[in-house]
Amino acid sequence: MPTVWLIVIVAGPLLLLAFIAFSRLSNRKHETRQSEMRADRGARHLRERIEEDREKPH
């Protein structure tokens, strides 16, 4: 029985650290795509506003 507890005590934190590292790396990749999409939407919106301002008579 002490062997089982030794495995649990050693393997538990290692598995937890591995899970945390995997989730952070996974979120970082996903976050980059979202940031790029948000930047593209912002640039498109800005171009549309510039075109609208050019078309308005002053």
Task: From the structure above, extract its key features.
mainly alpha, 58 residues
Description:
93% of the residues lie in helices and 0% in strands. It contains 1 helix and no strands. It has one helix at residues 2-55. The termini are far apart. Keywords: Membrane, Transmembrane, Transmembrane helix.
Map the helices and strands.
Layout: H1 2-55
Transmembrane segments: 6-25
Keywords: Membrane, Transmembrane, Transmembrane helix
Region (Disordered): 31-58
Question: Quick gist of this model?
Answer:
Residues 31-58 are annotated as: Disordered. 93% of the residues lie in helices and 0% in strands.
Overall average residue pLDDT: 88
Helix content bin: over 70%
Total number of beta strands: 0
Continuous helix count? 1
Rounded to the nearest angstrom, the radius of gyration is: 25 Å
Structural class: mainly alpha
Give the assembly state of these chains. single chain
Beta percentage is under 5%
**N- and C-termini, Cα separation:** 85 Å
| Sheet with most strands | none
Per the principal axes of the C-alpha atoms, what is the gross shape?
rod-shaped
Unreliable spans are: none
